[in-house]
Structure formats: C-alpha cells, structure tokens
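Interim report, section 4.2 (structural modelling).
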Amino acid sequence: MALSDDDVRRVAELVRIGLDESEVKPLGEELSRIFSWIEALREVDVAGVAPMTSVVEMQLRERDDAVTDGDCRDRILGNAPAADEGHFVVPRIIE
Amino acid sequence: MAAGDCSAVELVEACIAAQGAAADLNAVVAATAEQARAAARHADQRRHRNEARPLEGIPVAVKDIFCTRGVATTAGSRILDGFVPAYESTVGAKLWDAGAILLGKTNMDEFAMGSSNETSWWGPVRNPWSPAAGPSLVPGGSSGGSAAIVAARAVPAALGTDTGGSIRQPASFCGVVGLKPTYGRCSRWGIIAFASSLDQAGPLTRSVADAALILQHIAGFDPKDSTSADLPVPDLHAALHGDVKGLRVGIPAEYRLDTLPVAVGDLWEQGIAWFRAAGAELLDVSLPHTRYALPAYYIVAPAEASANLARYDGVRFGRRSAGRDPDDLYTRTRREGFGEEVRRRIMIGGYVLSEGYYDAYYLRAQQVRTRIAEDFRTAFREVDVLLTPTAPSSAFPEGAKTDDPLAMYVNDIFTVPASLAGLPAISVPAGLDDDRLPLGLQLIGRAFDEATLLRAAAALENAVGTLPSPMGSA
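Predicted structure of the assembly:
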C-alpha cells in the first residue's frame, strides 16, 4: 500500500498538521513502509468475527441526567493561551 | 516508619538528595520538593497521633501524564507547555488519600508514544545501568523516567501508564518490577489520553510486594471513568505467599522467535525451570494470532490517538502558535507543538479513519483484536498464567533505533498482545545479560485476576533472588 503525495497532503489537512512541501515525499515513503507492514492483517480470516468494541466484558452504565460539576469557568480559562472577559480568544473569523 | 526507625521527613529528604544525585538521568521533569517536605511533616504528625494511613509518608514519583493539581503537567510535549491542571487524576488522588507523597513528575515519551523515552520534549532519559564509559543506554519507554528513577533508588515507587508495553518494557530495561493491571481496574480519569481502549495506570517498584501495595491503593471503581470496572479489589497482599504448587503456567509457542537473542531465550528457559522446581505445572499453549498483534496495534492506537489529540488546538490550554485565522492557528500550533513521532502517529490514525479506508483498516484491526482476545481465552481454559520474555532485548544505546520507526515498534512485540486483550501483566527482573544489563520476564494473567498474577510473580521473584543494583551493590 503506497501513499501518494496527494494522500499525504489530504491527511495532513484532515488532522490539521502543517507540512512543508519538502516533507511530503519522505513522509509518504515512511508511511507507505509502515502500511505495507500492516498489510499482514489481510492474511487473517475475519469473516463473521465481531470487531472488538468492549475490551473487558462490562455493561455501559447510565447515570442520572444531573449536573455533577461546574462553576469553574475561571479555573478552566486560567490555562488558555488567550482569554478575555470569560471567553477563549481566537483570531478573527469574519472579515 | 511504623517501627520509628525513620521519619517521613527523613525518607523524603533522602529521596530528594538521591534525585539530586541522579539529576544526570533527566528522569524527573518537575521536582515538587517543597510540596513533598510539607506533606512529610504532615505525615509524621499523623503517625505521631496514631492516625497513619496505609501509605503514610511514602514518596511516589508520578509520570508526567497524570494530571496533578497545581503542578505543571506536559505529557512530555511542547504543546502542553504551561498547562497546570486544576484537578488531580483519580489514581493520584487515591494515593495521596492513602498517605503517599508526590515526589517528582517523571519524564516520558511524548504523549506516551515511544519505547525509548527519546521522543520527549524534555530530552532523553539515561538508563542508570548505562556503563560509565560509552554511550548512554535508553531506559525504555514510554514510562522511562519512572523506571529510571526507581532503578536509581531515588524513590521507592512510581506510577506509569501502559498502552502497549509502556510500564513493562522500561521495567525490563531498568531492572525493576512493572505491573499493568487489567483494563478497567484503575480509573483513567485525569490521565492524559493516548489510546483510550488500551491505556492503564500501574506501578513501577523494586519488589512485587510493593507493586501489589501500590495497586491495592490505586485500583477500584470510579464513576468518572465509563470503562472503570465496578468490581471489588481483592486483597493483593494475601496473594504474595508465592506458593505455586499446582499452578498451571503456559508457554506460548508463538513467542519463540528465531530472532530472539540467546540471553533472552536462555532466561526464559531458566524461568520455566524455576516454576517447575517450585511445583508449578508447565504447559505448552498456542496463541495463533500473536504475529498480527503489532500491526493491529499500530492501527488501533494511532486511530484513537488521532481522535484524542484533536483537542490540542492552541485555544483552550497549552502552547499556541500565532495564525492569521483559526485554521492557520491550529495547523501551526500542532506542527510546532507536536514532535515527529506524535505527528507520524496522528497521520497514521487520520489516514486509517478517513473516508474509504475505515473498513479496510480500523474495522479489520478490531476484528483481529477479537481473534487475539479469543486466543487468550482459549489458552486460559488450560492455564492460570502465561510466562514470556518482556522485551526482545536489553536496553539499547540512544539513537540506535530513532531512524527506523518499525525497528522501534518491535520492542513491544511481547507486551502488545496482552494490551489488546486488556489482560493484566507484570514484568519481573529475572537476570542480567552478558553485558550485565537487566532482563525481565513477563507474566500475563486472566482479566481481573491480578491476585494469581502477583502470586506467580512473587514465586518468580523468590527464585531469582537478589540482583545487583545499577550502582554496583546489591
């Protein structure tokens, strides 16, 4: 399985990681090597096998639909790179 | 301390001094000495009032992936530079409630992605077993700082996390005990997520008894973690008698690799002989899908990581790079904030989850994972524990595998299968190789049967006897 340059650019955009044009080809080659190693999985007969969805046998629990936490706006904003008047600050979106 | 031979203040001071002496290891990224001194005085007062809790005054180092209230937490990443959690992880809070004292946040591979501690933004950790002359050896990873600082005798116990071997492999490389509990045994709340269906917290210690003691106090149900198991935690200390007469120990045929170094293979044979001599019943078992575990892991873990790490966007916490618009801000922040291995795994994860590839990769990997779990279930009808090597080699020099991701990934060949199946497993230091570097043997147990696992581990530890310390003396 070989990744094309366009595959690499497309995935980098999807995961929002900036790439220099010079990095596209070497990264594509490296990922292609990893994916050709992963290809071994095609040998496994998985017909009718359920994908694992729960690691150990357990039922997902429900809880009451009630507020259990909160009132911590300023503590949360304290870790923001930029905050103003109780809000996160991002660059202007609308010109 | 209960006998009055030593106070918490003395113990904490001794550990602070030892961590200072071991500063060249780069194992600790935040020292927390003043906080620990205050906690030690408090612990001595409690003991004086006969109010000592089970771990009163015991210093514990914590991998920098556990959120610690008021203490910077970076997960070894530049992107979390400046992040100071407003809350404590559940397992951390349980330790402090039992009287333990936080002494040091430990270095780690960035976001726990690595097997050598070389991907840390804080730089590599030196294995205390490195020869005085010659290149630094890696401590393993990703919990490399935790393993190194325990091996250096600068703290009696440390917490790590294990996703595909990140407690057990560094424990093997550093000659300490490393225990990964059953998935769901310990709460993941407040632990920075790497791969949510695999991550588990656990102890690194110098003895099996200490690992059992720490696990006893960090395990248990937590409503804040939806995959935390609502099951009672057995009395683990009671399991430590180490009597394995009649215990059925399985040896998986598929772990006998042609490429296994002679020293590793010989130690495994020695382990088999020790269990036989102790009265255990040794049985050959087959785990036919073993060779597919690593490739499946390198789909599942990056896929989950790419989703978990989507939150690092430079807006709500951590480091931000300037951008002309939000998209530009995200793209630059993530490019500059994540290191090479983390970017690589996010790319793998993004690719396997992207439109048109999901069924071929992620779905198939989860089906293979079911097969791997079935292999173990079948084996555990015949045996009580499995005995294998922990890692395919002893510690290697810094830089030896950084150019080849696949060579690095193979370090976890013996630890990943149990992770995919959610099973508890422990690495026990079992000997030294020809270079006088430690090697561990791994025991794998049934889900939620840490008691039997620890009983077998105690028997193995008894058979091994005393190994030398990295500083030369026993």
